[in-house]
From TrEMBL:
Gene name linked to the record: mraY
Protein name: Phospho-N-acetylmuramoyl-pentapeptide-transferase
Origin organism lineage: Bacteria, Fusobacteriati, Fusobacteriota, Fusobacteriia, Fusobacteriales
Membrane topology reported for the UniProt record: Multi-pass membrane protein
Pathway field: Cell wall biogenesis; peptidoglycan biosynthesis
Any one Gene Ontology BP term: cell division
GO cellular component: plasma membrane
Organism field: Leptotrichia hongkongensis
Record's signal peptide: none
Record key words, sorted: Cell cycle, Cell division, Cell membrane, Cell shape, Cell wall biogenesis/degradation, Magnesium, Membrane, Metal-binding, Peptidoglycan synthesis, Transferase, Transmembrane, Transmembrane helix
């Protein structure tokens, strides 16, 4: 909206020219999303309580979580609302990336919301895994189609994977293999973030840190001079995505106001599935897919702990961890919930710093 206003009235009010600045609009988006959460958080939580949309602790989960039963969930609706509202105000909707992210966010939210709604009303397990994957595959197909139609460099179609550890190292693959790769990144990221959402404030912290990391890399990727200097894959118009990422960061910091221990609300699959999927899509757009496992190491660790636990139990009949995902393992070792959360945040900060070191050294 701000960008459109300056385009329409710049001749009459030259002061509006300031809204051409991506950095300014990103700052505005951050503040709008943060204040949106801060102001609407209390009434939204009260509404969730009135509707009795409370979370139910898993019977097989840690006993310390039983007293969390009844805590309002689906807080992700407010997070996504803040992101979309802030992006609508500060974003440039002549930019193809902003339009696509806006639409895809709504689609991901629909999947997560339906999953949460089923858990609260009909089926405790929510949406079946197959249906959830099907929805994510549809989003993958749309993302693949977006890349295919617009390309990522000029008007060319580029199906390549960049090795972040070696300078000018590209793996060129067929469109079919690239589709499989895109599906793996988006679905893997979405579900890994979802699995991390098991302690108060746990998933918000790393997602904020990773989003800040991607915001910086995205800005550099969309600037031809910086991209050339750092040997990044230059993607025209990509810098506009920092407005969206700033909205994500602002919304999550605002959400932490109510979600940190003891949590007044949980984001539910509505938030975690969407946020994870969006992170996956953005790294595909900026051609830094293999940096996500480094920056988002916490998410990968959580997902791998579940996979290892299931495989080892089915194969050998024994568990590797006391409980999976791995944050529950540390809880059962006797660590307080807040200590696990803060330590995971610290690890996330360190792995994101490592990401920048890798970009510079290569």
């Amino acid at each position: 909206m701000l960008y459109l206003l300056q385009e329409l009235f710049i001749n009459n009010w030259r002061v509006l020219r300031i809204f051409k600045s991506i950095m300014l609009r990103a700052s505005v988006a951050f503040m709008i999303a943060f204040l949106f959460m801060l102001i609407l958080g209390k009434p939204f939580i009260a509404w969730l309580k009135k509707k009795k949309y409370g979370d139910t602790a898993r019977e097989e989960g840690p006993k310390s979580h039983f007293d969390k039963s009844g805590t309002p969930t689906m807080g992700g609706l407010l997070i996504i609302g803040a992101i979309l509202f802030a992006t609508a105000i500060a974003g440039n909707f002549t930019n193809k990336f902003i339009v696509f992210l806006f639409v895809i966010t709504i689609l991901f939210t629909t999947i997560g919301f339906y999953d949460d709604y089923l858990k609260l009303t009909k089926h405790k397990k929510g949406l079946s895994g197959k249906k959830k994957i099907l929805g994510q595959l549809i989003i993958t197909a749309l993302t693949f189609g977006f890349v295919y139609k617009f390309g990522l460099v000029s008007k060319t179609i580029d199906f390549s994977i960049i090795n972040p550890l070696i300078k000018n190292s590209y793996l060129y693959i067929t469109p079919i293999l690239f589709f499989i790769f895109v599906a793996f990144v988006i679905i893997g990221s979405s579900n890994a973030v979802n699995l991390t959402d098991g302690l108060d404030g746990l998933v918000s912290g790393p997602t904020i840190v990773v989003s800040i990391t991607l915001l910086i890399i995205t800005y550099l990727t969309g600037n031809v001079k910086y991209a050339k200097y750092l040997n990044l894959y230059y993607v025209p118009q990509a810098a506009e995505m920092i407005v969206y990422l700033a909205s994500v960061i602002g919304a999550l910091i605002g959400f932490l106001w109510y979600n940190f221990y003891p949590a007044q609300v949980f984001m539910g699959d509505t938030g975690s599935l969407t946020l994870g999927g969006i992170l996956g899509i953005i790294v595909i757009f900026i051609k830094q897919e293999l940096l996500l496992p480094i920056a988002g190491f916490i998410f990968i660790m959580e997902a791998l702990s579940v996979m290892i636990q299931v495989w080892h139990f089915k194969t050998f009949g024994k568990r590797v961890f006391k409980m999976a995902p791995i944050h529950h393992h540390f809880e059962l070792l006797g660590l307080p919930e807040t200590k696990v959360t803060i330590r995971f945040w610290i690890v996330s900060i360190m792995t994101c710093l490592l990401t920048f070191v890798i970009l510079k050294l290569r």
